[in-house]
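ARCHIVE CARD
Drawer: 12
Card no.: 0347
Subject: one protein chain, sequence and derived structure
Cross-reference: see card 0346
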Amino acid sequence: MSKLNRDIIYLILQELQEDKKSLYSCISVDKTWCEIIIPILWSNPWKYLKIENYKLLFNVIISHSSNNFKNNFSNQKFNFLKDSYQKPLFNYLNFCKHLNLSEINRLINSLFEGYEISTIRNEILNLFVNENTKFTHLYLPYRFDYQIHLIPGAEKCFSDLKFLSCSVNINDNALTGLVEICKSIKELELFIEVQNNNYGIVQLIETPKKLSNVRFLIETYSERNEPFYEILEKSLIKHANHIQYFKITKQPSTKILSSFVNLKSLELFDKYRPLSWDCLDNLSFPSLQSLKARSVPIKVLTNIIANTVGYLDEIKIDHTSHNEIGNKLIIQAIYKNCPNLKFLKLLFKNSNILELEKLLISCQHLNGLFIIFEDVWDVSVTIDYNHVFEILTKSSPISLFKFKFHYNREPKLKSFRLFFDNWEGRHPMLLQTVQYRRYGNEHFNLIESYKTKGIVEKYDNFLSEDICEVFKWV
């Protein structure tokens, strides 16, 4: 029975692995809970790391090293290391599944600025990379030049590696070793620079048996790099049938996307300059479930949606300038082709508010809606919030109770009051607003009063949509 109880507790706590606060609060329940939670928290200790916690984390890491090493740094300059002599309750490093050398570099450079850090780096790497650890995720810093594969125990340590993130201007010797330890990866994230990109990175792309998740993140676009971009994209041909998740932050240089016949998630980001993206014309992704795009022509996105077959359940489109006709066509493409849609972020122009009603009626599984109002793009536009809120309360499916509104001028108190009053009796809503300027607390106080009534469960306001996670309501 105790074994069963422990297993059940483990499964429950695994569901909370993204909720750090809840996990911390559960550590003190008893010894069993603590023994289960510590490995979960330490599987990726870098995820929530803040600069003010660098010393604390470094102390815990170094507490696993020899006293001889610690004695070398026990001087006044590094007196924060005194706590590292206490023997740790757990071998925390063995719980790590994510090895983030980028964060380790930042940590060391921050704490030991002006000092020779190679000795410290080597010690930390040897603490993490050995036969007692097994990493699934590896993150490498810019211009990585360390031959990590030569560390004793590296082969076993990285034998279950599933994810790699690195820059393509990696050192040749480091790249050679990386190819050896990355044969099992399924996810690859590449940061592509303006210069000094290593063409040998193609071997790293082609070595794994099945890459299913690929992200090409172009740091700064340069036309002279087009030949390199083409080589990178063509190197994915081997994995075309296996790739299910793909992200790129520039217009593709080839027609490689047409080969991804089993694609489930597509993320497109025109980060630098508006381009035609005509390489996506007439493409069909029958298995597509998620589409996220920024600054990509609305016509291209409309065609992609129109060529799906009903599996799309998540659509996020922003920072894409378009007229009323283009806006109407993409809304229609969504409600005609996406019956299983659960989450949507989209601009709704004033002239197309009635199309919103049709979308709500057609998409009966909708759970979260992020509306960008037209006055965000054109401050001269006046939004008829009474009409919008009437449509939302009248036509929203039962499943919809999560809302985000991005506007330039907030609705009048009367409009919000109408919205909340008409929502009474439905699932309490999770509401987040995005407004660059806040004027007074009247709206906040009003919403707080409806929280008391149980009509609004939670409310937040963000000054920028970039800090507001699109489909996450806390």
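Annotation on reverse: The CA atoms of residues 169 and 197 lie 4 Å apart. The chain has 17 helices and 14 strands.
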